[in-house]
Amino acid sequence: MTAVQLKGVRKSFGTFTAISKIDLDIKSGELVALLGPSGCGKTTTLRMIAGLEIPTDGQILFDKKDVSETAVQKRNVGMVFQRYALFPHMTVEKNVLFGLKVRGTDKAEMAQRLEDILEVVQLQQFRHRFPAQLSGGQMQRVAIARTLITNPSVLMMDEPLANLDTKLRGEMRRFIRDLQQRLGITTIFVTHDQIEAMELADRVAVIFDGNLAQYAAPDALYQQPNSIEIADFMGATNVFEAAITGKSATTAFGALSFATKAADGPAHVMLRGEAIDLHLTEPSGVQNQMQGQVTAREFFGANITYSVDCKGVRIQVTEQSRRMVDVGQDVWLTIPPDRIWIIQK
Amino acid sequence: MSKTKELARHKRERTWMWIQLMPVMLVLTVLFGGALVLGVAQSLGFAPWFGVNTFPDFSYFAALWGDSFFWKSLGLTLYYAVAATLISLVLGILLALALVRTFPSKAFYKYLYKLPLMIPYTVGIALAVIMLGNGGMLSRLMAFTGFIDDPNQFPQILKTHMGWGIIAVYVWKQTPFVALTIYAVLLGVGRETEEAAAILGANKRQIFFQVTLPQILPGIISSTLIIFAFNIGAFEAPFILGGGFPDTLPVVAWRYFNDADYTLQLQGMATVVSIALVAGVILYSYLAFYRRYERRIGRS
Asked: How far is CA B81 from CA B89, B129, B221, B250, in A?
């Protein structure tokens, strides 16, 4: 297991700066997701850690040893590509053994490790097939097996689930998480899907425009984003202007009490839709009440999202679809103070 | 839609397809197929317009194949064709591999390397004479810089059976063609498999031979088939830059066709058919060998 550190890493391609400056600390055995929109620099960061790109400035450290200039072949890292990058002219067996073969591993050891890894990824019966004869999920597992058989100190994955259908993506997520936890290998995972990042990662590094915008555990990132951009990227729909005084936020739809620390002055208040309770009668003795009217209803199967108009402000409320509240119904919304997050301006 | 209507529509579509194919079929059948049949018939003694009709008569092939100079000519023809094809292939692959990398002024080089493709062979031959001849630029430059005392001392490159001039012209013209074909294949393949191999620990040599080469093989096969077929049948370069008797087979055929004795055209046609047979056997074997390899790697 290997700890990975990025210290002031910058990467430019001619006049274009892909990464402005990134500092990142990845603990040994941790699974970290690099999350961000397309073109933000997350893949470039991953490629620099792998050794496929050399940083223009800064250092990349593996267990405190500088590997910034170390050739890709000598870093002992593993990478799973978005389009798998399997060798199309080799069978599953030959693809998986490639890394050991080029390193001159003993034949008996190669055979033993092949059996072990094929069992891990459950591909024994496909060993003589070529990549073109496999499904997307099977190709993905071959790519993982081909990487893991070399015992890499760091495993990297560049949007490995992007080409899979929804059902298979869920299965592969669980498979990758189980495998990573079983092997305890330091893993860096690139994705633009926040759900994927939250489900898989121990910590998520959000990258915007070549800068590290926030690096935190998934729940912290979801509940406590440090900017409106991150809140928006993480799917927050209820972000409103507010004036902070003490522990109270004055908004267009009323004053809200909150529990978190915040400085007085203008700010944004974020209310997660699922943290808001929707009542059909006026509740008593509950803090942070807002009266409104349901203006729209979206049914998502397990959940329903209601749009509620509170003094001209649209607030979205998500709840489990155990009931259906009609559009036009008068309702009362409440939210506990500890579920309100303040984003300072 | 009823079944009858469906059948009628299908019939109309088939008829339209045949009408569209007709011009190509006519050219292939009449011009190419007809000429091929007539050429073979002529090589077997069918030429009533010259007052010769001994069909089927294998004596023209017997006379040709029984002459030791035919085999020398065949050897020269194959030597020029194979040497030029191999050199163009190696240089073309290196050029294509360089072109997929990023380097300064890449856009300019991408136009520059294609230049010989737009220049006719005859101009290339003229350039070879101007540059490589004993009174040419290179010999004068070497005399001027003191490497040799006189341009006449410059080693003979043109008009020798070593065929340096012929090979140089072929390579000059065909390297960009090979590079263009393989560059297109490389762009399709992308860099990910090479990068995956590097991450797995492969060095540059292992990456090229075990990962890149098998993937660009279709481009190599198609480009070498085309340039070899051209080289084996090419006439102008060996005629102008060759070492004289014994000539390559296309030049031998031309000499027969150009002879005052019209009946020697049958011998010339036997030479042409021999070239076609040799080229056909070589190219068929090459393709069969490649198909076997393709099946072995699951690309059937």
From this structure: 12, 20, 15, 12
Taking each helix axis from N to C terminus, what angle separates B213-233 and B264-296, rounded to the nearest 10 degrees?
A: 180
CATH topology for the A236-344 domain: OB fold (Dihydrolipoamide Acetyltransferase, E2P) (2.40.50)
User: Is A102 close to B297, i.e. CB distance below 8 A?
Assistant: no
Residue-level pLDDT at B278 = 94
Domain B58-296 has CATH 1.10.10.10: no
Q: Which residues contact B4 (CB under 8 A, 6 or more apart)?
A: none
Is the distance from CB of A100 to CB of A113 less than 8 angstroms?
yes
Upstream peptide bond of B56 is cis (omega within 30 degrees of 0) = yes
Report residue B152's pLDDT band, with 50, 70 and 90 as the boundaries: confident
Residue at token pair 């074997």: B285
Report ipTM for this prediction: 0.84
Distance of CA B1 to the CA centre of its chain: 53
Query: The pTM is what?
Result: 0.81
Helices (H) and strands (E) in chain B, counts: 15, 2
Cβ distance B201 to A52 less than 8 Å, yes or no, reads no
CA angle B145, B147, B152 (to 5 degrees): 100
CB-nearest partner of A87 from B193, B199, B201: B193
> What are the structure tokens assigned to A296, written together?
């729209």
Q: Does B202 touch chain A (CB under 8 A)?
A: yes
pLDDT of residue B300: 61
Domain A4-229 in this protein, CATH class: alpha beta
Contact yes or no for B138/B132 (Cβ under 8 A): yes
Interface test with B, best of A86, A89, A113 (most B CBs within 10 A): A89
Chain A environment of B198 (Cβ under 8 Å): 52, 72-73
pLDDT confidence tier of residue A39, bands split at 50, 70 and 90? confident
| Chain centre to alpha carbon of residue B69 | 23
Express each pLDDT in B259-270 by its tens digit: 888 888 888 999
